[in-house]
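Example: Transcriptional regulator, TetR family.
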Amino acid sequence: MSGPSGAGPLAPVQTPRYQEKREAILDAAVRRFDEHGVRGATLADIAGSVGLVTNSVTYYYRKKEDLATACFERSIAAFDALATQAGAAADDVPQRLQHFFGAYAQRLADIEAGRHPPLLSFNDIRALPAPHDGRVFAAYTDMFRRVRGLLKGPSTRALGREDLNARAHLVLSVAHALRNAIGRHETDEYPRIAARVVDHLLRGLPATGAAWPPVPLAEPPWRLGPEAGGTLDAFLRAATVLVNEQGYRGASVDKISARLNVTKGSFYHHHDTKHDLITECFERSFGVMRQALRRAEDGPGTGWSRAGAAARALVHFQLSDDGPLLRATATSALPDQAHRRRVTRTLHRLGQRYASVLVDGMVDGSIRPLDPTVAAEAVIACINAAAELHRWLPAATVDSIDAQYVRPMLEGVLCPPSVAAPPALGDLPPRGCP
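Written out as structure tokens, the predicted fold is:
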């Protein structure tokens, strides 16, 4: 049956039964996409998990990309609604963030208890093909604007567009990371964990009177990364960028080779499989993080100066020619579950190493009393998210990033602006993603 003037098939009548079945498909798809990635999950697998055949799913969503888009849009809409409610609930920044994260923690508790449908993480959003990616990126950018609006108030009137963009990116990066970290706690603890996250976002790490910046980064010992480059390191950097952009399955051998303008034969001269290469990419990123943390543990100065220097060095690495680090979100699409567990365990251990440096600062009085695990997870999440800074701060450089991003990451989103006379708040670039 066609629509008016042969415009195409009529949309299915959305009866309560139709809507119930569609929601069941979305719920199943979220779980499969989170487990296998957008490229790794199949319609057949999603259909089977709800007792359907593939053709039944295509009645609701013609292609897997249509289904993935609907899942992403549902998650984005949930964040947008939380931001809208928080904006209407209070006039000042602290109360808005408290409302946003408090409601978000309750939503996560409801999901854990089965009272609310699951939300798809944004780990694999870059794996969407055109035109689906443009649609999802546009929705995410609109939601980003809403979250950015939570940071506009009397205490932040001096902040310009780039400062607000950077701080909104910090807030959302911490929120995305909280979805994974909060599951290690009892659900009745979720509100308390959310309150500690907000406390960190607002007040940062330093005790009263601690100076900014923590230590100069010009000191040679803080240079991170491999000392020698060469073809092998070039492969690792190219693969890291592609996995960050397109996920594990989207970073094909052909694309990695094309990025370097070399043949596939050259690729296989250095690596037996793509899995081996991605494993080395993780190890390279872990090695860089270990360098920074080891120097923070063993270096001179207060805990605040050492924790701050490590965080700044890692953000600088993200924007340098040696970067970026492989994003933690790349773990979501790793096909080998045992490998995924090993990577996740290593990331958790590195976070705990950073937390121990924060404890040093609390002992010597340079870092205020706080939950070191929550604070470490937030800082590591923001370091990780610095790989995407160019989407929100197109002109960001190693020279400018300290004031725009690193300082509010470490001192809180209410710290002074990056420039004395910021430009008026403008609109965002047309596209962005988490």
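Residues 129 and 198 are 35 Å apart (CA to CA).
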